[in-house]
Structure formats: structure tokens, C-alpha cells
UniProtKB/TrEMBL annotation:
Protein name per UniProt: Uncharacterized protein
Ligand binding (ATP): G106, Q107, T108, G109, S110, G111, K112, T113
Family the entry assigns: Belongs to the TRAFAC class myosin-kinesin ATPase superfamily. Kinesin family. KIN-14 subfamily.
Organism from which the protein derives: Erythroxylum novogranatense
Domain Kinesin motor: 24-352
Amino acid sequence: ALGYHRVLNENRNLYNMVQDLKGNIRVYCRIRPVFGSERNSVIDFVGKDGSLVILDPVKPPKDGRKNFHFNRVFGPTAAQDEVFKDIQPLIRSVMDGYNVCIFAYGQTGSGKTYTMTGTSSGSTKDMGINYLALNDLFELSNERKDVTNYEIQVQMVEIYNEQVRDLLVNDSSTTKYPSIFNIRSTGETGLNLPDAKMHTVKSTDDVLNLMKLGEENRVVSFTAMNNRSSRSHSVLSVHVHGKDISGSNLRSCLHLVDLAGSERVDKSEVTGDRLREAQYINKSLSSLGDVITALAQKSAHVPYRNSKLTLLLQDSLGGRAKTLMFAHVSPEGDSYSETISTLKFAQRVSTVELGAARANKESSEIMQLKEQVENLKKALASKE
Ligand code: ADP
Ligand code: MG
């Protein structure tokens, strides 16, 4: 078993090196389909290499073309499992001790919740990343059970107006909001929300039940504060604890974040509570952008403390942690200016340059590592 263990570990290390070479900050774009009543799509071109061309709906095609480039772009026909397949290695690296953070950014109605949760119909075909990720972690935990014993726990909170609330409390007096609490580091376990209830999950059924509870708690806030869900961030945190037969221990965390809508509100029309909400959202989304930009530029100072959101995610942003942002856009003409604003934000936090020159060097290194991984896989197969 120890020989098997060694080969497995070498394989995992190489696998994670390949992941590292792809960079620790990745930006993907996802475009939702055009719905019945909407105007024509502003999407002109989606390239396999991550390029995207947007057309200004009121300018002639020659002048109104804008180019963007991301690590990947998923067009309107991309299915949930196709998207998941692409991020699966990133999810799996959590089981090797990496902290990972995945965000969905974009205006309300652009598909953030679709990507993270899926549709409320509950059909498994449409299940989003939250469910598929946990499902995959269970699978991996089962595959590795002879070598590593994993415990998987989840927390789910919402951040609304810079206040954090637990979404996974089973409070019978559902008229009341779940309590507010602080983000603090407990050092030892690295947990940032020691007061939010931690649920151990063992099966996808456990996860489905918790997701239902989380949804219900969000709906309570929704009716009481009218459509709060688009103005709050929801964070599903998956904590992994693995004990190896060699005696080593690992702890890691996967944060899955459905952000508040990024749409700008017309300041002249918004007052009172709505204005306050908008200011909080602006502040936290721009703090998130600042943090990721600082990390991408390897700045000495990373401004985590500027918002609850970045403070909560601190351990899974930067260092060895891996970050993936989904920039969600609606394709229809009416959303054009929000679409451009989302894509500009995404481009700002992206390390991908237009006409990326370093890609070649990386890909040859990746090819070599892939070859080594294949060889190790063969060695592993012959041991089984
Ligand atoms: P957001 O969370 O950004 O406000 P939603 O995820 O609720 O947006 O998406 C708005 C609507 O569009 C929902 O009805 C959702 O099911 C649908 N939708 C979004 N993205 C897709 C997609 N890629 N394929 C099919 N339907 C989608
Ligand atoms: Mg949503």
C-alpha cells in the first residue's frame, strides 16, 4: 500500500504542478442564451482560445467591435456538465490540500445562480457547480478511501449590507432572520466563520437537503425585503479534512460564491435603503476586484480588509490558493452597457493578455508534465 501511496502522491503532485502552470487566477466568461422576447444577440464571435468579440447594437459592425480575451469563454449552448468538466481538476485539487475560490460575477439575470446552483426545478440535468463539486469530492473521497480518510463539512452564509448571516440554520421561527455574526480567525483550524453552523455531509442527498434549507432561508429574506437575493452575496464553504495512512493531515477549503448583481443603479433615482444596498454592493465588488488585481500583479499589499467578502475569503485568495471567476453576461442588446462593464471588470482582474505571448512556453511545459503524469498513471495501473 505504501508503494501505491507513493506513486499516487507523485501523480497528484505532478497533476497539481500542471494546474499551477495554468496560473492561480483564472477568468472564464459565460454567456447565457437569448430568451424569447429579447432582441438580437450582441455576441459576434466566441473562440475556443478564450477570445470574445462583442458588437455594439447601435453602431455599424465595423466600428462597434470590441475584443476581449479570457482563459475560456462558454457560449449560450454550453451545458452545465461541459462547464463542470473544465473546472473539475481545480475542484479536485481541494482534496490535495489546495484552497480554491470560485465566484460568479455579473448583472442580475445573467446566469450566476444558474452556474452555481442550477435551476430551481431541481432536475439533476441542470445542477450547478455547488452540487456537482460536492458530488465529485465524494467520488474522489471514495476512490481514495484506502489511502486517505476524508471528512467533508459545509457552511453557507449570505452577506447583505456588510452583515453575515447563516443560511443553514433550522430555525422553526422562520419569520426571524438568522443571526448576524462576525468573521474572525480561529487560527488553529483556519475557519473564518466559527459561529456559522458546520454540517458534516456524507452523500449528495445530505447536500441536496442543505441546499434546500439554504434556498428556503434565502426566500424568507426575499419576501421580507423584496428580492434581496440579487443584492446579497451567498457563500457556500466546503471544508475538507483528510487523514493519510502515512499519518499526514490536510485541511483545505472550497468557497463557492454567487455574488450580488453587479448592475449599476441610477444614483438620481435611488434613495434610502436601495441606495445603501447599492453602495455596499459597489464597495464589496470593487474590493474583490482590487484584491484579485493586487494578487495578479503580485503586489506587496493585498487589501483584504476592505470588505466582509474579501475578509471571509482571505484564506482562499492568494498564496497557494486558486481563484476562478466566472464573468456572466446576457447577450441581448438591452444589456449591452452592463455586458461591457462586466467584461471590462473581468479583463481587469484577468492575467490573460490580449494575444497572450507566454502561452506557448507554458503549453510546452504542460505537455511535458502531462506526459509524465501519463507515465505515472501507467505505473499506478500496473500496481493495482
Ligand atoms: P442571476 O443569478 O445572475 O440573476 P439566473 O441564474 O437567475 O441569473 O438566470 C436568469 C434566468 O436565465 C434563469 O431563469 C436561468 O435559469 C436562466 N439561465 C441562465 N443561464 C442559463 C444557461 N446557461 N442556460 C439556460 N438557462 C439559463
Ligand atoms: Mg441569482
